[in-house]
Specification:
Blueprint lengths: L3 H19 L9 E7 L4 E5 L7 E2 L5 E8 L3 E4 L13 E3 L3 E3 L10 E4 L3
Antiparallel strand pairs: 1-2, 1-4, 3-8, 4-7, 5-6, 5-8
Length: about 120
């Protein structure tokens, strides 16, 4: 009687499940960094921004923003992630950089898309 095949399938299934779990992001964060050049000339960085809340950008807002995270963002010209009636928001995908048309209207906040 060969017992080995009966134990091989459950063991392989368990190994596959643990392997898949190790590849997923179980955090509530967009993993990575957000780097931006502020209107006041300072360079700022945010690590692993959490999903859900609005993230205001210090230094008068961002004139250039690099999204080096696993999440996509909405960029806003207002500090509270709400539209101002005009250009309400701009989409910025993961691993991309965005420069506003004018330094007179920097990005003031961002939120993680889809959370």
């Amino acid at each position: 009687m060969n017992i080995r095949p009966r134990h091989t399938l459950p063991a392989a299934s368990l190994l596959l499940a643990f392997g898949a779990a190790g590849c997923t992001d179980a955090t509530d964060n967009a993993v990575g960094t957000v780097q931006y050049l502020a209107k006041d000339g300072s360079t700022n960085q945010i690590e692993d921004p959490s999903r859900g809340p609005c993230h205001p950008l210090s230094g008068g807002g961002a004139t250039e923003l690099a999204n080096n995270t696993t999440g996509d963002f909405w960029l806003y010209f207002t500090p509270d992630c709400r539209g101002d009636g005009g250009n309400e928001r701009t989409y910025l995908g993961s691993m991309l950089t965005n420069n506003p048309a004018s330094a007179n209207q920097p990005w003031k906040s961002f939120s993680v898309v889809g959370w």
